[in-house]
Amino acid sequence: MRIALSTGGGDAPGLNAVIRAAVLGALGRGWAVYGIRRGYGGLLGTDKVVALDADSVRGITHLGGTILGTTNRGDPFGWRETRPDGTIVDMGDRSDELLAAFSAHGFDALITIGGDGSLRIAQKLFAKGLPVIGVPKTIDNDVAGTVMTFGFDTAVSTATDAIDKLHSTAESHDRVMVVEVMGRYAGWIALNAGISGGADVILIPEIPFDIEKVCAKIMDREARGRRFSIVVVAEGAIPLGGHRVLKGAASAGGGMEQLGGIAQQVADAVGQRTGKETRALTLGHLQRGGSPTTFDRLLSLRFGAAAVRCVAAKQFGVMVALQPPIVTAVPFSEALGAPRIVPLDSDTIMTARDTGVCLGD
Amino acid sequence: MRIALSTGGGDAPGLNAVIRAAVLGALGRGWAVYGIRRGYGGLLGTDKVVALDADSVRGITHLGGTILGTTNRGDPFGWRETRPDGTIVDMGDRSDELLAAFSAHGFDALITIGGDGSLRIAQKLFAKGLPVIGVPKTIDNDVAGTVMTFGFDTAVSTATDAIDKLHSTAESHDRVMVVEVMGRYAGWIALNAGISGGADVILIPEIPFDIEKVCAKIMDREARGRRFSIVVVAEGAIPLGGHRVLKGAASAGGGMEQLGGIAQQVADAVGQRTGKETRALTLGHLQRGGSPTTFDRLLSLRFGAAAVRCVAAKQFGVMVALQPPIVTAVPFSEALGAPRIVPLDSDTIMTARDTGVCLGD
Amino acid sequence: MRIALSTGGGDAPGLNAVIRAAVLGALGRGWAVYGIRRGYGGLLGTDKVVALDADSVRGITHLGGTILGTTNRGDPFGWRETRPDGTIVDMGDRSDELLAAFSAHGFDALITIGGDGSLRIAQKLFAKGLPVIGVPKTIDNDVAGTVMTFGFDTAVSTATDAIDKLHSTAESHDRVMVVEVMGRYAGWIALNAGISGGADVILIPEIPFDIEKVCAKIMDREARGRRFSIVVVAEGAIPLGGHRVLKGAASAGGGMEQLGGIAQQVADAVGQRTGKETRALTLGHLQRGGSPTTFDRLLSLRFGAAAVRCVAAKQFGVMVALQPPIVTAVPFSEALGAPRIVPLDSDTIMTARDTGVCLGD
Amino acid sequence: MRIALSTGGGDAPGLNAVIRAAVLGALGRGWAVYGIRRGYGGLLGTDKVVALDADSVRGITHLGGTILGTTNRGDPFGWRETRPDGTIVDMGDRSDELLAAFSAHGFDALITIGGDGSLRIAQKLFAKGLPVIGVPKTIDNDVAGTVMTFGFDTAVSTATDAIDKLHSTAESHDRVMVVEVMGRYAGWIALNAGISGGADVILIPEIPFDIEKVCAKIMDREARGRRFSIVVVAEGAIPLGGHRVLKGAASAGGGMEQLGGIAQQVADAVGQRTGKETRALTLGHLQRGGSPTTFDRLLSLRFGAAAVRCVAAKQFGVMVALQPPIVTAVPFSEALGAPRIVPLDSDTIMTARDTGVCLGD
Q: Testing the interface with A: which of B344, B351, B353, B358 to mutate, by most A Cβ within 10 A?
């Protein structure tokens, strides 16, 4: 057996751990393993295919980034290449070439690690006959079919750590601090980090927020002698009657560039209405990088090993998924439905309300 | 409504977060909340009952320990007190006194946070009419009915961090390092931390180990130029045909005192058989203390809030439990069956095997 | 003896540790200790004076923030108060009132923990007869007379951790990431964190930078296949022939609000000149908050204890200072000269150059 | 120019950072750089010499261990080799062979990173004509001539973190916890970590301790309702009228193996005298491993760069040293005098006493 690994999309803590477990799991079965560098570029001529052995994956479990390189441009059904002068050239549908290259290498299966976009590509390649297995990768944790994706626990930890740090400063300056975290369609990071970090207000895409309610909470604290407040806002949070302030492709990287994004808007609105000093901070890429938490290390290793077991069982067209307490596999179709958003009746939402957090409604 | 909180048994990261959410959840409903200090001592005269308000629980989410104080001696059905001279006096069954004191305080419900022992006591008190709700607390993660207990993720992180630190030292000295972690009946900490930390051998109570297999793994690595190995062993691991080396009550605190415990035995046996330099390290109490991880903070807050919702629903005789993705409640009887051990066919066990870890069998 | 403690200015990791050592050091000598809450507000009627005992300072060494509360408005020589409606009223010189209140409380000495501004106030109060000792507090590490100030090591660690996290993301996206850190007049944080985090370019106030040199470094890396770069820029960095982009009072809190600040300017300029995707991130308040590193804990405790020994020796009008390996005291005049900037011939600058870092010149 | 790098002795956090800066500093000057693997084994036939380029040292600043491998057996003046069957063979003085091999490789200079023993070897090789520069490496921080060695700040942080974790557990169990940290002749780690972690008793080699004083402190706390205590003891601490309990060669690796070492002795003695439950924990190798703190990263990089500047200046027979605020170089003779111990009149000792810590005297 010869199998190939590829990664697509942005960085996520745990990528290397997935790769390590997949490589060791394959080698242990006597298979050969290859890495397709930089998305599908390794098969389509912009990068290469490299053999992976035990030495390739030694000591990488806790390292951020990926030994295979990632890329945001990698759809073989609409291939784009960047010329040395920086111009981007549209190369059209190269999926047939990809399948031909896959065969030419003699590969028996592909394990691809990627987000929503990458998994949709995998689904289309599977429909064209490619024996492929997906490993879900999204910091936002909004892939359907799995209770958690790797990298999410690390992102929540990073965001909580930032909220912790801002707490004492907000308090010492009597300020309202508005912290923007990732989450375009789902508020998982904002909700989990906000509760864990003791935020006073948490605004998520699932609950359009009333800025008056936010201000009322802040002034209620003021009246009780708590002259500072922490507001955590997901990048995709929406004001009542408003719409997302995301700026399309420009924010693909994680929102850091959203000067004038939702955090700044909330800070400005709160400042005008309450007369309080406010400050906005967008965590952006900080949430995507770094060494995975222990939880994410283990989940990533379990995902990588499970993907190899799917190959061994010739179970293709599926995505590995955490359905606690076990890691299993679900068909692409199940994973690629609507994004998994925070249920409004979940106990985590209730925990926020019970502990006095304002959710903007 | 007047409710009371108590904690029993040893330390666990997240105790204060449970207390905080329970207090805020109760105050938010207009109830009064009281803390029974040091187990049931606050009701039985060795300590006191204190009123808890929002100020009592401000800023404690991330703090280790507990603002209520814990104790290892607290069974009202067989009460023991320590005299100033250090002697321990058996005071017999004081459960009726406890119920009387509970009524005298005008309490409507008790939320008790504790491990296996404390939950059994709660079950007996419930049978005698006490309106009680349990919150499971065990570092070992072996309580039935819940997929995870708070403090476990922190313990696994601490153990993984220790394994990380030992790795480079083991390598630089060509040594076999044997690390003993908690887990008397279940190998969750050893398995999760061992995989995450890249251990070469993991020995858990669920799989009696053959020391020859352990040595074969180490010598196989040696033959491939890897002159060091890391062995992670749960305190309750059992050699094939042997029995646990736990020393009963003496190790109640977490095993640190097990000089000559299982880690040392494994180290000695490996040293004799392989001629390698070996070292044993028992992490002991380090695993119980410290600031909870973000995961444990959130789980603890969810548990505390869920317990209050049980009170509001007059749902007594239950333990809150994580059944992902939600926190719910299960009857004491379900929680107090056999300890929840690692299923031998779980994907985590398969992950260990797939990545080349020797499990001693 | 009765002594008083006050803190001025913004947050700094280690404030509580200074307070703890000062309180314990005073109590151990049989003195009474009082905390003046929120700058000098406790003496001038906007807040109060509280007695501090051993319980007040238990377990606070590792906590961020300060148990005394801090404030940015606290100059008794030009007192300003904020009315409930948010307007700020100038109350004029209230320094005589302050001295009178100090005497009325029967205080024998004041230990004041603060930055440049607070120390200048202390110097003026000392000139008017107040027996005062200063403890230097500035994240920027630019106070003369001391090799290090507490909080600096924590800020450098926080910034380094952020650079670490951005590394893998920058690499996976082929981007130039520009990270702005604190440092208005001195580049200590940028230099130390930049070197430790493996930055490619570090821009500090001490070395006016040539944007062409910055771009040349980035394109040189590109030519060697390194398609990403990390630029660390101090908030006070100055382009050749340009001037600081700091926005005066508006950035007093730490620079986070500098949308359009130096990081964004550098990112825009690099993007235009190189055609690379660039992103700016301003760490701002993240650098001021959080739990102190072990180094800062110890330095803070040493500072607090040293201040009390100065009181015991009736050595007033001085600031405690680290002159390794010892903590000693220097006259205010020595501390309040020009800010301590990075010497251009220091070995740290040479380390940056030796390891290939571009300093913009 | 062709230069060589070697490392000797055990692990220390920061080794890779020293190597990185030395390699980049040399490459930047147009030199060739080689690593001698596993001590001098690379020159004496038990291992090899490898060329080091920029790729060799990419991304290693924060990694524990060393890319060159270390070894505890590496004295060319008394060479010992381990046979495959485990027996150790004495090969006598091979220093002439070493010099010959050095010349045969065409090396112009050697940078050797090592502790006391390795530096003495370097001094002897220098006397025989080898152009060598030392970089001091000792966790214990007891090398003369430098105010700090790399790895020390990390070890203190690890020990402080452990004390933090033990605090809440000690409190919840009313126990006396005795924590043994590294420090054979000097108490730097015990003193710094003990103060930072809020220990009640700190025992260091510089101050022979009176066990009665230790017990008096513990009972004094008991009398004030503090029913637990934390004792931090350096491995080389000595009871009044007693002698070190170190077990010679057996404890070379860091003391973890000292079952029955000083911590256990103190715990036993305290338990007998006070009737309190006591527990001993020896941190051992945990203090040597792991990722360096930011402080240690920077110091290591500065050391590595400084060593290369010494080569460029043909300044041999010296050790790089931190004499704050700069890194400089001192003759071997200055570095190899008596170990640098804690001065009894240092302000750190006074800080301990001022904050109520018992030092056993």
A: B351
Q: Give the pair of three-digit tokens for residue C357.
A: 């870092």
A-chain residues near C10 (CB < 8 A): 169, 172-173
Contacting chains of B (3 CB pairs or more, <8 Å) are A, D
Rg (CA), chain D: 22
* Full set of structural domains in chain D with CATH: 2-150+292-324 (3.40.50.450), 155-289+343-354 (3.40.50.460)
Q: Do B28 and A309 make contact, defined as CB atoms within 8 angstroms? A: no
Burial of B30 (0-12, 13-18, 19+ CB in 10 A): exposed
Place of tokens 């989410």: B61
Instruction: Count other Cβ atoms within 10 Å, centred on residue A345.
Output: 8
Q: For testing the chain B interface, which of D6, D274, D281, D285 should be mutated: the one with the most B CBs within 10 Å?
A: D285
Task: Name the 3-class secondary structure at B109.
Answer: strand
CB A358 within 8 A of CB A231: no
From the list B274, B269, B171, B177, the residue with the least C-alpha distance to B216 is B274
Q: Find chain D residues with C-beta within 8 A of C302's C-beta.
A: 347-348, 351
User: Which residues are CB-contacts of B315 (< 8 A; sequence separation ≥ 6)?
Assistant: B133, B329
DSSP-derived secondary structure for D201-235: EEE-TTS-B-HHHHHHHHHHHHHTT---EEEEEET
pTM of the model: 0.94
Neighbours of chain D (3+ CB pairs under 8 A): B, C
C59 to chain A, closest Cα gap in Å: 16
Looking only at the bridges linking them, the beta strands covering A109-114 and A132-136 are parallel
CB spacing of B11 vs D175 below 8 angstroms:
no
Beta-carbon-side half-sphere exposure of residue C325 (alpha carbons within 13 Å): 19
* Residues whose CB is less than 8 angstroms from the CB of residue A103 and which lie 6 or more positions away in sequence, other chains included: none
Query: A9 has which bridge partners?
Result: A71
Instruction: Quote the distance between the C-alpha of residue D319 and its chain's center.
Output: 16
Across the range B205-211, mean pLDDT stands at 97
Residue C60, CA atoms < 13 Å, CB-side half-sphere: 24
- The structure tokens listed for C272 are 């235009």
The reply to whether B354 touches chain A by the CB within 8 Å rule is yes
| Pairwise CB contact (< 8 Å): D165 & B281 | no
- The answer, for B254 touching chain D at a CB cutoff of 8 Å, is yes
**Contact call for C286 and A165, based on CB within 8 A:** yes
Residues of D in contact with B167 (CB under 8 A): 64-65, 289
- CB pairs A-B closer than 8 Å: 129
B163 to chain D: closest CA residue: D286
Which residue is catalytic, options A140, A142, A153, A296?
A140
**Along the 361 residues of chain A, how does pLDDT read in single tens digits?**
999 999 988 889 999 999 999 999 999 999 999 999 877 888 988 778 999 999 999 999 999 888 887 666 678 999 888 776 768 889 899 999 999 999 999 999 999 999 988 999 999 999 999 999 999 999 999 999 999 999 999 999 999 999 999 998 888 778 999 999 999 999 999 999 999 999 999 999 999 999 999 999 999 999 998 989 999 999 999 999 877 765 433 333 333 333 468 999 999 999 999 999 999 999 988 999 889 999 999 999 999 999 999 999 999 999 999 999 999 999 999 999 899 999 999 999 999 999 999 999 9
Alpha-carbon span C300 to A136, nearest angstrom: 46
Cα separation, A90 vs A28, in Å, equals 41
What number of other Cβ atoms are within 10 A of residue A87's Cβ? 9
3-state secondary structure of C331: strand
User: Per-residue confidence at B251, pLDDT binned at 50, 70, 90?
Assistant: very low
